[in-house]
Design a protein that fits this description.
The complex is a heterodimer of chains A (172) and B (165). By secondary structure, chain A is mainly α. Chain A is built from 9 helices and 1 strand. In chain A, 77% of the residues lie in helices and 1% in strands. Chain B has 165 residues and is mainly alpha-helical. In chain B, 68% of the residues lie in helices and 1% in strands. Chain B has 8 helices and 1 strand; from the N terminus they run αααβααααα. In chain B, helix 1 (7-14) packs across helix 3, helix 2 packs across helix 3 (30-51) and helix 5 (102-117) packs across helix 6. Classes of the chains: A mainly alpha (172), B mainly alpha (165). The A-B interface holds A 22, 25-26, 29-31, 82-84, 86-93, 96, 98-100, 102-103, 106, 110-112, 114-115, 118-119, 130, 132-134, 138-139, 150, 153-154, 157-158, 161-162, 164-165, 168 and B 7-8, 11-12, 14-17, 39, 42-43, 45-61, 65-66, 69-70. Strand 1 (88-89) of chain A pairs antiparallel with strand 1 (58-59) of chain B, so a sheet runs across the interface.
């Protein structure tokens, strides 16, 4: 590697923290827990980098670690899962200063319903949907990262999209 | 022109996982093109909310409401365990003779009741002998509480009735 590894790691943390926080928040449904997981991801990444050297591309590598760490976290205990399942999504404030005009056009109720529907998706469907539509990964990349066959990825993606569209259909 | 695509195929195509001939069909079919556009619009809304909108915080459910289903589940489990013990375990460890004649059953029950209610120092056998002798002797103290009909049924005459006769 041409640059100082420590410097490279610092840059990586700066570049990817926000994205990973969002990703983990989506997969776990809890922003506080996502914050903890992101810290854990960077610790794992640092350890792995020291052992095996830096990856060719930090982004997908960190995403893969984040997805796996979130999955480990979800498996941690039935009580945690039960809590996540039983908690309700709090209404998003309509007059959020960070909203773009496009975001503001989406009603608060519709927004809440989308979040509710997304939270009720099974873990695999949520992972596949996020990686395809938010991280913009291709089908084969998702299949390789999650250890699934391409057909299974397609099936999970279709079910996730179908359920999310049902919510949109109801609200329109 | 080929048949219109199923919803599944449209979703796959929108995600870039479709076959070239499906794309060719959509290019030629207005209905499928419209469905693909509608799906793309819906997914734009969903991704916009999920990727850029403020992330909501889960509002914890009140603890009593959380405990209700947990307690109900635990109760059901306990009930199932009790039933299982009764049906499977208890019957397996309890010896039930396959066939027992009525006199054997009566003798066993007598043994059990005597063993349970005998005073200390009496064995079941002694108590059984003593009881038999009293019954055989038609002692009026023993039969005092019986009605004449009961005594007649047992083959004993009421001493009181004989005296008064």
């Amino acid at each position: 590697m041409g640059v100082n590894p420590a410097q490279s790691y610092e840059d990586t943390v700066c570049c990817h923290t926000g994205r990973l926080r969002r990703l983990c928040g989506l997969l776990l449904g809890d922003s506080q827990e996502a914050e903890e997981v992101v810290q854990e991801v960077f610790v794992k990444a640092l350890e792995s980098e020291r052992r095996q050297g830096p990856p060719a591309d930090w982004g997908p590598w960190l995403t893969r670690i984040a997805v796996n760490t979130c999955r480990d976290r979800r498996r941690a205990g039935w009580w945690q899962r039960f809590r996540r399942w039983s908690d309700q999504v709090e209404l998003v404030p309509i007059a959020d200063p960070g909203l773009t005009p496009e975001d503001a056009a989406i009603g608060a109720e519709e927004r809440r319903r989308i979040w509710e529907a997304f939270r009720t998706l099974p873990d695999r469907q949520r992972e596949v949907f996020v990686l395809r539509h938010l991280e913009d990964w291709s089908g084969p990349e998702i299949a390789a990262a999650l250890g699934l066959s391409p057909g299974t990825v397609k099936r999970h993606l279709f079910r996730a999209v179908h359920r999310l569209r049902l919510v949109l259909g109801d609200s329109r | 022109m080929s048949r219109c695509l199923t919803e599944r195929r449209v979703v796959h195509l929108q995600a870039g996982l479709g076959a070239p001939r499906e794309q060719a069909h959509v290019d030629a079919c207005l209905a499928c093109a419209g469905r693909l556009d509608a799906l793309t619009r819906d997914l734009d809304v969903v991704t916009q909310v999920l990727a850029r909108g403020p992330m909501p915080h889960p509002r914890p459910m009140p603890s009593f409401r959380r405990w209700v289903p947990a307690a109900a589940g635990a109760g059901l489990l306990a009930l199932a365990a009790l039933l299982w013990v009764e049906v499977a375990v208890w019957r397996a460890v309890t010896y039930v003779p396959l066939s027992m004649r009525p006199e054997e059953a009566r003798a066993m029950l007598t043994e059990v009741s005597l063993a349970l209610f005998s005073t200390s120092g009496y064995s079941a056998e002694e108590a059984s002998d003593e009881d038999t002798s009293v019954c055989d002797g038609a002692d009026w103290l023993v039969t005092a509480g019986c009605t004449p009909a009961q005594l007649a049924q047992a083959g004993l005459a009421s001493p009181a009735s004989e005296e008064f006769r």
